[in-house]
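Render this sequence as a predicted structure.
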Amino acid sequence: MPTSEQASPAQIARSLIRSGQHQEITYGLAPGYVQCNLVIIKAIHAYDFLLFCQRNQRACPLLEVTEVGSPLTKQIAAGADLRTDLPKYHVYRNGECQDRPNHIKDLWQDDLVAFLIGSGITFDQALTRVGIPIDKRHRWVCRTRLKTEQAGRFHGNLIVTMRWLTPEHAIKATQITARFPFNHGAPIHVGDPDIIGADLAKPLHGPKIDSIPSHLIPVFWACGVTSQAAAEAAKLDLMITHAPAHGFISDLKADDICLP
């Protein structure tokens, strides 16, 4: 790890997480750096999961896949340790979340493969630069009726991130997020949630939704939780993911990997 004078905001954030000094959500941490969703599964299932991500790229834009048995990243954050460098994990067995530890050093096995998938949190800084307020109260993760394309045991419906925006901001957000294909790109839907079957009655994450204010429009982006839900539906004997909003902070700068 570089000295504190040399370290980037992303490296400093991972160091704080690794030491246990930061165990909260990563939203707003190291702004401008690409954040990732994490899915760790056994190598025997890795090809099918890779195929699932390839077939559903809007929801599952892969940024790195680790070597079998290695918890270290090479491409997006040299030497980062996926056992310790996220503030909270979810551990699933046979499709059920059974533990929520702050590290997985004691769970790592020689046959595990980690998948790092782009997160829409990454483009929040670009939205704020053009005056679009990022209000966490107006952000939800919901299931839809839209089917993903199955690969082996991995299947399920598309999961989306919904934000409420003014009409003017919805247009700007569509234009800006289209520049970030490695972080879900442009919205998949704008307007009536019923058209895509977005389940607002039981959001996966976010407060209960009683009604949408008349001056705001719901805007829906494909969400990386889709990959987690597909692996959960496969009922693998072991799967480890990031806890919601506790993502992996890479060394990639968002502005460097977006379209001009």
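Summary. Residues 9-120+234-257 form a domain with the PSTPO5379-like fold (CATH 3.40.1640.10). The CA atoms of residues 81 and 179 lie 29 Å apart.
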